[in-house]
Write a structure and sequence with these properties.
Layout lengths: L2 H12 L3 H18 L7 E5 H4 L9 E7 L15 H15 L4 E5 L4 E5 L5 E9 L5 E5 L4 E5 L1 H14 L4 H13 L7 H14 L5 H16 L2
Parallel strand pairs: 2-5
Antiparallel strand pairs: 1-2, 3-4, 4-5, 5-6, 6-7
Helix pairs in contact: 6-7, 6-8, 7-8
Length: about 220
């Protein structure tokens, strides 16, 4: 087996199996529908690396944005919902929607829901439409609101992947696998941004060169 063939096999091994993807799709749709019976949700959609197609096998958690309002709002210092309230409302709704068979955990910016029989869970992220664009999401640790723009990041990564001839996202997955097996100290999203940044100035002509190039330049991004 050549090095190129080995990396092709490596790439294939990181892809989510079709059956796994179908099960995840059905599960998240059922979850969103059932949760909407207990919580006012104007819209909901998948976000994070699952939506950007940079998730690796085995699948862990799938991020789901829950949009709670209709009109875009600016950040106010008082009078609006507090971050802990935003998270607690989702906890109560999840417990009502899934009184049995689910483990529900409050996290700093989301509510994790996992089910018996599924080897992956869901991170439910309450959000409010932000003025002028994007969303506000709560940070329970600091009590503050964080501006985020998941659609922008999804488009950003898609364009970067196209620019590299479809090589960037597989390289991102390989780096995530490397990180997962080397202390897992890097956040998944940061790995994506690092790989994209490297791809703008250095050639990623194949998978082996791409992985090697990112690893060689990694210390510049993490302060080593």
């Amino acid at each position: 087996m050549t090095v190129t063939e080995a990396f092709q096999e490596f790439k294939s091994g990181l892809e989510l199996p079709a059956a796994h993807s179908h099960r995840a799709s059905a599960a998240q749709q059922a979850l969103r529908e059932r949760l909407s019976r207990h919580l006012a949700i104007e819209d909901s959609f998948l976000t994070g690396s699952y939506a950007r197609h940079t998730k690796i096998h085995p699948l862990n958690d799938i991020d789901v944005i829950l949009v709670r309002n209709v009109s875009r709002v600016g950040l106010v210092s008082s009078g609006g919902i507090q971050t802990f309230q935003a998270l607690d409302e989702v906890v109560r709704a999840a417990r009502s929607a899934f009184p049995t068979g689910a483990t529900i955990s409050k996290q700093s910016r989301s509510i994790n829901v996992s089910f018996a029989g599924l080897d992956f869970g869901f991170d439910l992220i309450p959000s409010w439409l932000r003025q002028p664009d994007g969303y506000w999401i709560p940070d329970g640790d600091t009590g503050s609101w964080i501006a985020t723009s998941p659609e922008f990041h999804e488009q950003f990564m898609t364009q970067a992947n196209d620019r590299t001839g479809g090589r960037l996202k597989p390289i991102v997955k390989m780096l995530k696998h490397w990180s997962r097996n080397n202390y897992d100290l890097l956040r998944s999203f940061h790995i994506e941004l690092i790989c994209e940044n490297v791809s703008r100035s250095l050639r990623l002509d194949n998978f082996q060169l791409g992985v090697g190039t990112v690893l060689i330049n990694l210390p510049h991004f993490i302060g080593v």
